[in-house]
Amino acid sequence: MGKRVGMEVSIAAAEAVKQANVDVISAYPITPQTHVVEHLSELVANGELDAEFFCVESEHSALSVCLGSSATGARSFTCTSSQGLALMSEITYIASALRLPIVMIIANRTLSAPINIWNDHSDVMSIRDCGWVQFFAENGQDVYDHVFIAYRLGEDRNVLLPVIINMDGFTLSHVIEPIELIDQEKIDQFLPPYKPVLSLHPDRPVTMGGIALPGIFTETKKAQEVAIRSSMPKILETWKAFGEMTGRYYHPIETYKAEDAETLLVTMGSFGETASAAVDKMREEGRSVGLMKIRLWRPFPFDAFKTASLNAKQLVVIDRAISVGACGPVASELKAALYEGHQRPSIYNFIAGLGGRDVAPSDFVKMVDKAEIEIEEGNKEGFEIYGVRE
Amino acid sequence: MTENLNVFAVRTLTQKEYFAPGHRACQGCAEALAIRLVCKALGRNIIIASATGCMEVVSTPIPFTAWRVPWFHVAFENAAAVASGIESALKVLMRKGRIPYKKIVTLAMAGDGGTADIGLQALSGALERNDDFIYICTDNEAYMNTGIQRSSSTPFGASTTTSPAGKVKMGQITWKKNMPAIAAAHNIPYVATACPSYPVDLIQKVKKAAEIKGAAYIHILSVCPTGWRSAPELSIKLGRLAVETGIFPLYEVERGQYRLNIDFPNLKPIKEYMKLQGRFRHLTDEMIEEIEKRVHKEYEQLREKAKKGV
């Protein structure tokens, strides 16, 4: 087994990038992403990682550099947050359509205005449809592990997609957690060097990024849709292989005390651990409450979600972002997923933890209390922003 | 003298085409000619990062391509950053022994909009880092691909679809942004201007840029008959007139040293250049005279710099 050491999650993420033997790193500083790239700079400066490290003049260029390097056959990494992600959003769509297996960690932070550097999921929700595989990490170990998982998955010649690892800003990125590091030999076995199917080289000239007229554009989008949908079995396979190596098995939807629960809390990201403490407390009180954690956001695991929600009477969905004028993006996704079913659980949607507002176990209890009462009273499609100070 | 030499010297160029015929550029497109010459100068061992623009649109309608060298298009404003990525990947992959060592030139290309406007930030970043690549700006002095809208590289007085000459306005009312000077201010080893009407000069500059370690910037005036409202058969002549009138002087800035490649003791009147183009049709003689004064002043300043060698 590998060593278990206490380290800041951002440092662990950078160590994983080093162990993944990344060739090109390109980034622009933004809070709370900075610790990842600072540590990577140190690793490169000390010769511990043989990579080209680019300090670019914007996030837009950070990802553009990665497209150039990835298309040339280099394993490429970038990391950003919030406004930075918004600025590079144009290029995120291009990376996936050109099938370039870049990996990006997003230290999730809200979007301005008002400007706020703290955590929620508004940034990544703004590029929800960008065509990348998107994971949400619950803790530091998840972040560390998923760097290897992301590269192995993305670079699989049957997948060839870029991958986002969402790491909640500050609540994950800046905390010290016990991380089990994996031995390098194991990593090298799990993740051999990247061998691109096509790359930019004069010996074999290719044209990448041409123009598609209406007569062919639809077909290119169909190909992309097929690609990301077909990545699902590969994702499961990669998790399985990783589990066999480390004993840590990951799933698209993970549950906690959920089998017989009438009420299911649904969370994404670091809310999961806090919510499980709340579930423990409610279970002690004899309440039938469980937890469902969404780890895989794109491609969305419809089947796994339907299976996990089969026995629940109601879902209390906690979104950490808001689609203003509609509801939380996760709730909206789940409602769509359940539409076909005959026995649909009620969905009560809370928006909580915006811009770094702390959400404690007691808050989850309060949200479940409120939702159960509201649903009892017939409000089956409830939506509210939790904890507004009035 | 120069003309005769050019007629002879172009025959020594390779017959090979890397930017293949059959692309969809307009008749008389000097930009396509410039790119063709650039590719001839560099040969097959290159990788191109192209910005969005005419050259991308005319050359790569899926599933066709006019490129016989590796070519990559990502977006409008990031050709320089993409080129940096390509260049760094080649460097690191060769260092790690994953691809065999070989000299491969990374070439970024963009139009004036993709360079002087929306791409300026990414370009400045790459020049400041002195990444080892050549950046070619093919300047046709407006957003021709989208329908002749003005850019910061559009010359004073030109009528475009967003700076139209009207009853109270005379067309573009700002002076052309001096991109070569901006590039030179980054202290990169090589900056040059070129024009496909002077093919040998252009090719020599591109070859020189390929030999230099670090960033090289070449600004190429590319006559656009569609946007300039000029006859397609006049493209070469117009390029020559741009140089001969002092409007677009051919010069190099090598490690900070300015050199005028062709100096004209007596510049031709700019009216000879302007009268062949519909975009200047509305200008009065007085206006042309005013423009000429500034052209001459700037030409003189350039000459002084070249004399001093700074």
Can you walk through the features of this model?
In chain A, the strands form 3 sheets. Chain A has a 7-stranded mixed β-sheet, with helices on both faces. A 6-stranded mixed β-sheet of chain A has the order 10-12-11-14-15-16, with helices on both faces. Chain A starts with a strand and ends in a 5-residue tail after the last strand. Chain A folds into 2 domains: 4-246, Thiamin diphosphate (ThDP)-binding fold, Pyr/PP domains (Rossmann fold, 3-Layer(aba) Sandwich); 253-385, Rossmann fold, CATH 3.40.50. The relative contact order of chain A is 0.12. Chain A has helices at 9-19, 34-45, 59-71, 82-97, 122-125, 140-155, 184-190, 214-246, 271-284, 302-308, 329-338, 361-376, and strands at 4-8, 24-27, 52-55, 76-80, 103-108, 133-136, 163-168, 176-180, 207-208, 253-256, 263-268, 289-294, 296-298, 314-319, 346-351, 383-385. In chain A, helix 1 packs across helix 2, helix 3 runs parallel beside helix 4 and helix 6 (140-155) crosses helix 8 (214-246). Chain A is globular. With 390 residues, chain A is of the alpha/beta class. Chain A has 12 helices and 16 strands. Chain B is an alpha/beta fold and 310 residues long. Helices cover 39% and strands 13% of the residues of chain B. In chain B, 54% of the residues are buried. Chain B has helices at residues 2-9, 30-42, 54-59, 79-95, 112-117, 120-128, 179-184, 199-211, 225-228, 235-244, 270-274, 285-308; strands spanning 46-50, 71-73, 105-111, 134-139, 190-194, 216-221, 251-254, 257-260. Chain B has 12 helices and 8 strands. Chain B has one domain (2-308): Rossmann fold (3-Layer(aba) Sandwich), CATH 3.40.50.970. The longest helix of chain B is centred in the last third of the chain and has 24 residues, at 285-308. In chain B, helix 2 (30-42) packs across helix 8 (199-211) and helix 4 (79-95) runs parallel beside helix 6. The chains are: A alpha/beta (390), B alpha/beta (310). The interface between A and B is large, with 45 and 51 residues.
